[in-house]
Input
Amino acid sequence: MTEKGLADVVAAQTHVSDIDGKLGRLWYVGYDIHELAKSSTFEETVYLLHNRRLPNTGELEGMTERLVLERDLDEFTGGLMPTFGEVASPMSMLRTTVSASSAYDPDGWDHSAEGTERKSIRLIARFPTMIATFHRLRSGLEPIPPNPKLPHAANFLAMLLGEEPDEEAARAFDICLILHADHTMNASTFTARVIASTLSDVHSAVTGAIAALKGPLHGGANEAVMAMLEEIDDVGRVEQHVKDKLGRKERIMGFGHRVYKTEDPRATHLRRLAQELGERVGETKWFEMSQRIEQVVMEEKGLYPNVDFYAASVYRYLGIPTDLFTTVFAASRVSGWTAHVREQLEDNRLIRPESEYIGPRNQTYVPIEERA
Ligand code: COA
Output
């Protein structure tokens, strides 16, 4: 018997992250996501996922420095950016750019564990530069070079938006990156592990993972949430809109989850951040509408918001363009994808499941000229 969508099937053993869907808990390497959101940084989270322990001061400085030094795009990859213009969707740009950047990676075709580690850190460091450069150029603006004095999250916003974020915005975005960094055997991570298991390279695995994340049932949901908020546009219209949608058997994006049967612990932080940022910029509309949607969906369907729901308002308040939301998710999740690729390679066996054949059997081949 097959379980549709491989629900509840354990596809790999991992040391990287763990979920308790009934209790609504998430841990990275045994550390509760609530503690990490409170006290960690994205740089430290990268170290944790890749080394499976928290760094000491020197080790954190080392990781931070590596992530800073690896931010610049090579000439070939940077040269691709103007060619995307307005025609490529941001996720397609990212997928193509990551794939293309493999050709000019300083480690070339070195697939050793050390080479794969260096490529992984390089990819994590470069995602923000790829996204920001693409966005600036398509907007007719000069790309802003990475600022080595800024941490990963603050530098990302500065390159994207053209001004250094204040401390509160930078911290809110850093928390977003921590919250999205890993999430067990989600579709994109599974994709990355399948590709790695063939002994392909880490750029190929990450390219495939981006392709999987792009879909609206996975990372693409955050953009769909914003589109819904914009369409509703008024808290007074929420109830009718949601009921109409459900009446048409449409899904409400940002709700439901394969594993969580209660509140997604990441949504708890994103709800708070959406409220705080909304109050700070004096535009609470997106947060209020989101809260009302949450109430109506709970009453009508008993579904909880997932990570993508409040992330949409948070990103909007931070000034991030809607069509870049999923790339921002990818810029964080690349830390988890690469940690999983490295873990897969440590003790690899080709991932090759079975299928259950349900088509016709014992058919007789009829020559084409005799077919109806
Ligand atoms: N809106 C409305 N109904 C939903 C729903 C949603 N967001 N999510 C699930 N449901 C309903 C389904 O219609 C189905 O109802 P039915 O049994 O009456 O047909 C039931 O809940 C189970 O859905 P199913 O698709 O089997 O669950 P799943 O585990 O395969 O799906 C998701 C998980 C995340 C794909 C699904 O909840 C979804 O599509 N959510 C919206 C997209 C999203 O936010 N994705 C980001 C995930 S982090």
